[in-house]
């Protein structure tokens, strides 16, 4: 009796266990009559579906195949590159597609032809590959009340997941030709957990990357873009995939951006050209006008430095030289050069001695201006050498031997001659025609510092003439350049000899410091603009042709 009771109890327990098992794993029969939520609940029930395990497919030989994940990206907004932070922002719609055979409901619900759609709840109930942005600094899924995630399950088990993201991505910028640069910024997608033996990522065959037609950038122009598939080898030195080493699938798309230079041309380059040109106004001011020329030079230099510093605040501090810095250095040199030119001509203007010049050309004027003391010492040496030659020729002239280029030394009585005094007509006689200056009668030039020995004056003083030596002495009449007088006058007429006439008659002329300063300023008015044009030619050729 007790034995039959025990057996009946065991049978009842078995029946109860079978009924509990049927309740825990719901059947898929009559799935056409089920709602989408009921069908998904039965397909993803724990007795049939494991969210921690990836979909598994096998080859005919029984080998396990990796999951193929296909990606597509739609870019509908892109923010300008932030050069100081080396980053840019994108707003995009990412879409991935893969096949999960465990979610195939075509056989259990043949009348259901449309895919099952859902949002966050559906996404949380199925397995999804973990894909991350490898070069992100910050990212998030967009949404107002709920995250913008759309999940679709087709009757054959194809899963499509789309989500809207906002991402701040790192982009290394090459600023060597800033602001005429071109940048290439990439967005990199990689598998986080599964290596290539478990998961392989691909771009969709048709239009993997698309852009919103209304997409515009304020500072850049989107030239083109391209996509790429590659494999990343991760080891202990690269832990962006956690602590797992191996080969991981990676997708990337790169945008080619050209910077629009209109803003920089109007706000930096053209104003800097005008500032440099304004600094040249000082060349039209007199060299002794120190206050206006110093004010003009310093104000233009400080204005340009302020303009350049405001433009460079948005750039990172890099170790190489940028094109904008070359322009800044060139313009600074021109502005600073105009100030140095003023200091130079102002120093010359304040000199007290005239400058001897052999010829009226740039080389001789600059050489005489830069080394006046050297020329003065040379002229004194010539004076002493000529006096020595005169003493040696006295004996030879008395003996009747008249050598070539003989110099006459005569001891005259000492008479005081005042500056500007005109010699009497009886004491002077006109020189022969070969000795006369072009288009002028020969006169004796007497000032307080012009030491010139005229043979005609010697002859008139003694009343003798040596016809055999007159031509030689006249041809070699000695004139030393005047280094201290401010003007040379014709004592008969009070006229001033021109520099060309002085050079024609003596081979030397003198320029006042004021004349040299004015001459340098007049040359600077053409040299500085011409040099700046040449600098611009080289600069813009390098920018657009190299």
Question: Could you explain the architecture of this structure?
Answer:
Its main location: membrane. Keywords: Cell membrane, Glycoprotein, Ion channel, Ion transport, Ligand-gated ion channel, Membrane, Signal, Transmembrane, Transmembrane helix, Transport. InterPro entries: GABAA/Glycine_rcpt, Neur_chan_lig-bd, Neur_chan_lig-bd_sf, Neur_channel, Neuro-gated_channel_TM_sf, Neuro_actylchol_rec, Neurotrans-gated_channel_TM, Neurotransmitter_ion_chnl_CS. Residues 36-259 form the Neurotransmitter-gated ion-channel ligand-binding domain. The protein is α+β, with helices and mostly antiparallel strands. Among the domains are: 31-259, Acetylcholine Binding Protein, Chain: A (Distorted Sandwich), CATH 2.70.170.10; 263-355 and 515-545, Up-down Bundle (Methane Monooxygenase Hydroxylase, Chain G, domain 1), CATH 1.20.58.390. Helices cover 36% and strands 21% of the residues. Strands 3, 4, 5, 7, 8, 9, 11 and 12 form an 8-stranded mixed beta sheet that branches. A 4-stranded antiparallel beta sheet has the order 6-10-14-13, with no helix packed on it. Strands 1-2 form a two-stranded antiparallel ribbon. A hairpin with an 8-residue loop joins strand 3 and strand 4 (87-99). Helix 4 (262-279) runs antiparallel to helix 5 (290-312), helix 4 runs parallel beside helix 6 (323-349) and helix 5 (290-312) runs antiparallel to helix 6. The chain is rod-shaped. It starts with a helix and ends with a helix. Mean pLDDT is 77; it is low at 17-22 and 381-495.
């Amino acid at each position: 009796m007790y034995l039959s009771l025990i057996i009946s109890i065991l049978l009842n327990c078995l029946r109860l266990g079978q009924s509990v098992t049927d309740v825990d794993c719901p059947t898929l029969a009559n799935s056409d009559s089920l709602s989408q939520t009921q069908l998904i609940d039965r397909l993803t029930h724990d007795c049939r579906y494991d969210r921690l395990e990836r979909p598994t497919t096998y080859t005919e030989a029984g080998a396990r195949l990796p999951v193929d994940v296909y990606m597509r990206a739609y870019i509908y907004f892109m923010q300008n590159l932030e050069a100081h932070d080396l980053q840019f922002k994108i707003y995009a719609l990412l879409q991935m597609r893969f096949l999960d055979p465990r979610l195939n409901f075509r056989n259990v619900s043949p009348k259901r032809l449309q895919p099952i759609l859902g949002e966050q709840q559906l996404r949380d109930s199925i397995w999804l590959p973990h894909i991350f942005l490898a070069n992100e600094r910050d990212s998030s899924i967009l949404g107002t009340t709920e995250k913008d995630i759309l999940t679709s399950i087709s009757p054959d088990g194809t899963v499509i997941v789309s989500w809207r993201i906002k991402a701040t991505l790192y982009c290394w910028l090459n600023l060597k030709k800033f602001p005429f640069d071109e940048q290439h910024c990439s967005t990199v997608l990689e598998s986080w957990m599964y290596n290539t033996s478990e998961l392989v990522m691909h771009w969709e065959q048709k239009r993997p990357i698309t852009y919103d037609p209304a997409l515009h950038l304020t500072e850049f122009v989107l030239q083109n873009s391209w996509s790429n598939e590659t494999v990343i080898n991760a080891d202990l030195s690269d832990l962006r995939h956690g602590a797992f080493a191996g080969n991981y699938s990676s997708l990337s798309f790169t945008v080619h951006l050209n910077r629009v230079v209109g803003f920089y041309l109007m706000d930096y380059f053209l104003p800097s050209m005008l500032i440099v040109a304004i600094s040249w106004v000082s060349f039209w001011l007199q060299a002794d006008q120190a206050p206006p020329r110093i004010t003009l030079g310093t104000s233009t230099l400080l204005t340009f430095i302020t303009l350049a510093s405001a433009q460079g605040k948005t750039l990172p501090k890099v170790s190489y030289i940028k094109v904008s810095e070359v322009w800044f250095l060139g313009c600074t040199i021109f502005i600073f050069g105009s100030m140095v030119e003023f200091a130079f001509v102002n120093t010359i203007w304040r000199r007290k001695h005239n400058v001897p010049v052999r010829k009226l050309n740039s080389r001789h004027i600059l050489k005489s201006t830069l080394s006046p003391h050297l020329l003065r010492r040379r002229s004194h040496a010539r004076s002493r050498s000529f006096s020595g030659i005169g003493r040696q020729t006295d004996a030879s002239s008395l003996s009747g031997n008249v050598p070539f280029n003989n110099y006459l030394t005569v001891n005259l009585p000492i008479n005081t001659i005042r500056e500007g005094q005109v010699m009497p007509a009886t004491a002077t006689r006109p020189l022969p025609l070969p000795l006369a200056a072009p288009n002028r009668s020969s006169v004796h030039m007497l000032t307080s510092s012009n030491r010139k020995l005229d043979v005609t004056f010697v002859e008139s003083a003694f009343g003798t003439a040596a016809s055999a030596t007159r031509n030689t002495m006249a041809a070699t009449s000695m004139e030393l350049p005047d280094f201290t007088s401010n003007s040379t006058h014709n004592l008969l007429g009070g006229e001033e000899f021109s520099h060309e006439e002085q050079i024609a008659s003596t081979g030397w002329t003198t320029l006042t410091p004021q004349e040299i300063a004015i001459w340098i300023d007049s040359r600077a008015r053409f040299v500085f603009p011409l040099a700046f044009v040449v600098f611009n030619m080289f600069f813009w050729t390098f920018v657009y042709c190299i």
